[in-house]
Specification:
mainly alpha, about 100 residues, single chain, about 80% helix
Length: about 100
Protein backbone atom coordinates (compact mmCIF):
# COMPACT_ATOMS: atom_id res chain seq x y z
CA UNK A 1 0.00 0.00 0.00
CA UNK A 2 2.84 2.39 0.62
CA UNK A 3 3.87 2.27 -3.00
CA UNK A 4 0.39 3.29 -4.11
CA UNK A 5 0.49 6.39 -1.94
CA UNK A 6 3.98 7.28 -3.06
CA UNK A 7 2.97 7.07 -6.68
CA UNK A 8 -0.03 9.28 -6.08
CA UNK A 9 2.07 11.83 -4.22
CA UNK A 10 4.70 11.98 -6.94
CA UNK A 11 1.98 12.41 -9.60
CA UNK A 12 0.59 15.35 -7.65
CA UNK A 13 4.06 16.88 -7.55
CA UNK A 14 4.47 16.30 -11.27
CA UNK A 15 1.09 17.91 -11.91
CA UNK A 16 2.04 20.95 -9.81
CA UNK A 17 5.38 21.27 -11.58
CA UNK A 18 3.63 20.97 -14.95
CA UNK A 19 1.08 23.62 -14.00
CA UNK A 20 3.84 25.94 -12.79
CA UNK A 21 5.85 25.44 -16.00
CA UNK A 22 2.81 26.05 -18.18
CA UNK A 23 2.00 29.18 -16.18
CA UNK A 24 5.57 30.45 -16.61
CA UNK A 25 5.45 29.80 -20.35
CA UNK A 26 2.11 31.60 -20.65
CA UNK A 27 3.40 34.60 -18.69
CA UNK A 28 6.47 34.74 -20.92
CA UNK A 29 4.30 34.59 -24.03
CA UNK A 30 2.11 37.39 -22.71
CA UNK A 31 5.20 39.51 -22.04
CA UNK A 32 6.62 38.86 -25.52
CA UNK A 33 3.31 39.67 -27.20
CA UNK A 34 2.93 42.85 -25.13
CA UNK A 35 6.41 44.07 -26.01
CA UNK A 36 5.79 43.29 -29.69
CA UNK A 37 2.49 45.17 -29.62
CA UNK A 38 4.17 48.16 -27.98
CA UNK A 39 6.91 48.22 -30.62
CA UNK A 40 4.39 47.95 -33.45
CA UNK A 41 2.22 50.75 -32.05
CA UNK A 42 5.30 52.93 -31.61
CA UNK A 43 6.35 52.29 -35.21
CA UNK A 44 2.79 52.99 -36.40
CA UNK A 45 2.83 56.37 -34.64
CA UNK A 46 6.11 57.24 -36.38
CA UNK A 47 4.68 56.20 -39.74
CA UNK A 48 1.58 58.33 -39.13
CA UNK A 49 3.76 61.38 -38.43
CA UNK A 50 5.83 60.70 -41.52
CA UNK A 51 2.67 60.33 -43.60
CA UNK A 52 1.35 63.67 -42.32
CA UNK A 53 4.64 65.39 -43.21
CA UNK A 54 4.62 63.87 -46.68
CA UNK A 55 1.01 64.93 -47.25
CA UNK A 56 1.96 68.51 -46.31
CA UNK A 57 4.85 68.38 -48.77
CA UNK A 58 2.52 67.10 -51.48
CA UNK A 59 0.12 69.98 -50.84
CA UNK A 60 2.98 72.51 -50.97
CA UNK A 61 4.27 71.04 -54.22
CA UNK A 62 0.77 71.10 -55.72
CA UNK A 63 0.43 74.78 -54.80
CA UNK A 64 3.84 75.46 -56.28
CA UNK A 65 2.86 73.65 -59.48
CA UNK A 66 -0.27 75.82 -59.70
CA UNK A 67 1.81 78.97 -59.21
CA UNK A 68 4.21 77.87 -61.94
CA UNK A 69 1.29 77.15 -64.28
CA UNK A 70 -0.13 80.63 -63.57
CA UNK A 71 3.27 82.23 -64.17
CA UNK A 72 3.61 80.28 -67.41
CA UNK A 73 0.26 81.66 -68.57
CA UNK A 74 1.36 85.15 -67.54
CA UNK A 75 4.63 84.90 -69.49
CA UNK A 76 2.62 84.30 -72.67
CA UNK A 77 0.68 87.55 -72.33
CA UNK A 78 1.35 90.82 -74.09
CA UNK A 79 1.66 92.66 -70.77
CA UNK A 80 4.58 90.45 -69.73
CA UNK A 81 6.34 91.01 -73.04
CA UNK A 82 5.99 94.77 -72.59
CA UNK A 83 7.36 94.65 -69.06
CA UNK A 84 10.39 92.63 -70.12
CA UNK A 85 11.00 94.99 -73.07
CA UNK A 86 10.91 98.01 -70.73
CA UNK A 87 12.89 96.61 -67.82
CA UNK A 88 15.54 94.48 -69.48
CA UNK A 89 15.85 95.89 -72.95
CA UNK A 90 15.08 99.54 -72.21
CA UNK A 91 12.52 99.80 -75.00
CA UNK A 92 9.59 102.23 -74.90
CA UNK A 93 6.38 102.68 -76.84
CA UNK A 94 6.24 105.29 -79.58
CA UNK A 95 3.93 107.63 -77.67
CA UNK A 96 5.77 107.43 -74.31
CA UNK A 97 7.96 110.17 -72.91
CA UNK A 98 10.91 109.27 -70.72
CA UNK A 99 12.20 111.60 -68.03
CA UNK A 100 15.69 111.05 -66.67
CA UNK A 101 17.05 112.39 -63.43
CA UNK A 102 20.17 114.48 -63.59
Amino acid sequence: MKNKYLIRGSKKKQNRVSVILITIVLVMLIIVVSVGKYNISKRQAEYDKKEARLMEQIEEENKRAEEIAEYEKYTKTKKYAEEVAKEKLGLVKEDEIIFKEE
